[in-house]
Amino acid sequence: MGVVKPGDGVHRRDHHELLRSTMETLTAELAFHGTPIDRTLAQVTAAAVQLIPAVDAADVLLIDEGEFISVAPTSPWCPVLDAAQRDTGEGPCLEAAHASAVVRCDDLRKDPRWPAFAAIAVESDVYAMLSYQLYTHGAGSGALNLFSREIGAFSLENEALGAMLATHAAVALMAAQKQHQFESALASRDQIGQAKGMIMERFNVDAVGAFELLTRLSQDSNTPLREIAAQIVAHGPDHRSTS
């Protein structure tokens, strides 16, 4: 039977209270739709370092059409390791972002999966990593990455805590994407409405006729309707009708 240190119970209660309050804060941020996504992700990566003793640094890697973006890094060497994975074309963050829900490595010195990246990570004194897929959509993907300077650092409890934080990050990213799509749709609708009004005034047609003209221009030029509308709003209806 193991010996329980006098402070263990107090420490465990303090940690549970910190976990509870942190998750409540993150949940409140998710419920408030005005919170910038960068702020939410920064809270997630900071919470990973604060709540999981094995984690020395954390960040979110977003990949968009081949561009690697390190978001909310808690250490300056997080983007360096993200760039190393981009340059070598391998690594746990890449694997999580593109293929696997969770990628765990307990000892980069001995793991055969990513030899080129592992050599760079070990040179930076990073020996263990946990990466969680946040989303994958078209040419875009993302992962929450936890870095440790300790070999075999992560316990199953650590992995579970990381998964909880990754879930918050994933929900925040999906909400931000939906908000962006909604705002883009509203902007497109407004531009199409403006373009219709300009065509109605210029060519003395009704709303149906103006929309039919917009649709015909879009089909004839193989250009999305919203782009046709944007050009008309920017340059006037004669610009599109004579081009």
TrEMBL record:
ANTAR domain ranges (all copies): 172-233
Gene3D superfamilies: 3.30.450.40, Winged helix-like DNA-binding domain superfamily/Winged helix DNA-binding domain
Molecular functions (GO terms): kinase activity; RNA binding
Alphabetized InterPro entries for the sequence: ANTAR (IPR005561), CheY-like_superfamily (IPR011006), GAF (IPR003018), GAF-like_dom_sf (IPR029016), GAF_ANTAR (IPR012074), WH-like_DNA-bd_sf (IPR036388)
Keywords: Kinase, Transcription, Transcription regulation, Transferase
UniProt key word Transmembrane helix: no
Protein name: ANTAR domain-containing protein
Species of provenance: Mycolicibacterium murale
